[in-house]
């Protein structure tokens, strides 16, 4: 659990550092108030979706990116579980904590990502394959979003939406 927490903090910090390069020239440096406990929204709620069991760990406004927020979720895939075709209207960074997943973006080839591996999805990507690679072992992902404030993190697509 400590390892997962450390990985989450380090990866989210990397996302923030990489994203800050896109900030406008009038953006202010983060103040200590931006890191106050009441400025983060720790949810801890678990919900069942069409993409596994999702636990939201944190949502945080990004002071260097006005109108944007960072979000961290843990996605648990049961053995053999797969998500529907979907997209994320945001930048998405995924770290595989446990097990293996098969992922494929529209126009690309499927690839298997094992524990310790990472992948990225852009706001224009359509995720056509996202599934646990194992029929016997669970898979767990740490998912880091940089998104417009208040927008849903995942949009399930119908056949005509692709």
Largest sheet: 7 strands, antiparallel
Rounded to the nearest angstrom, the radius of gyration is 16 Å
Gross geometry: globular
Q: Helical stretch count? A: 1
Record field, number of beta strands: 12
**What proportion of the residues is helical, as a percent range?**
10-25%
Chain-averaged pLDDT: 75
Portion in beta strands: 35-45%
Amino-to-carboxy terminus distance:
38 Å
Contiguous uncertain segments of 5+ residues: 1-49
> Could you give the order of the helices and strands?
HEEEEEEEEEEEE
Counting helices, strands and paired strands, the structural category is: mainly beta
Please render the helix and strand layout as text.
Elements: H1 2-19, E1 40-41, E2 46-49, E3 52-61, E4 68-77, E5 86-87, E6 90-98, E7 100-105, E8 111-114, E9 118-121, E10 126-132, E11 139-148, E12 155-156
Antiparallel strand pairs: 1-3, 2-3, 3-4, 4-11, 5-10, 5-12, 6-9, 6-11, 7-8, 7-10
Could you characterize the architecture of this molecule?
The protein is mainly beta and 162 residues long. The protein has one helix spanning 2-19; strands at residues 40-41, 46-49, 52-61, 68-77, 86-87, 90-98, 100-105, 111-114, 118-121, 126-132, 139-148, 155-156. It is built from one helix and twelve strands; from the N terminus they run αββββββββββββ. A hairpin with a 5-residue loop joins strand 7 and strand 8 (111-114). Residues 1-49 have low confidence and may be disordered.
